[in-house]
Amino acid sequence: KKMKEKIKIAQQEIAKIETEGSSGGIKVKMIGGKSIEEVEVSDKLFEQGDKALLEKFIKDAVNDAANKADKVTQKKMKKVTGGIKIPGLF
Predict the structure, then answer these.
(1) Are 61 and 67 in contact (CB under 8 A)?
(2) Whose CA is closest to 62, among 90, 86, 89, 34?
(3) Which of 3, 18, 23, 28 has a CA 20 to 30 Å removed from the CA of 69?
(4) Which DSSP helix (H) or strand (E) runs through 22?
(5) CA–CA separation, 23 vs 63, rounded Å?
(6) pLDDT tens, position by position, 7-49
(7) How far apart are CA 66 and CA 27, in angstroms?
């Protein structure tokens, strides 16, 4: 029961974690690894007018931010569970 409470608190903290990803002049800020809060496109990249390249960099920046969020989540949950892997938790 105590671990369940700790897990719930950790999940609430994880939902507030901000991560930032970047790729080729694109910066993306995510909250909780799920919600994109901010996207920044460098003027130089925007001026190039290469739609495919812009799309690739956006995808890569979002994936970068999400991967960072996953790492933080795994680290936090490992700390809470003492390294025990609980199926469906993370």
Answers:
(1) no
(2) 34
(3) 3
(4) strand 18-23
(5) 10
(6) 888 889 989 999 999 999 999 999 988 899 999 999 998 889 8
(7) 12
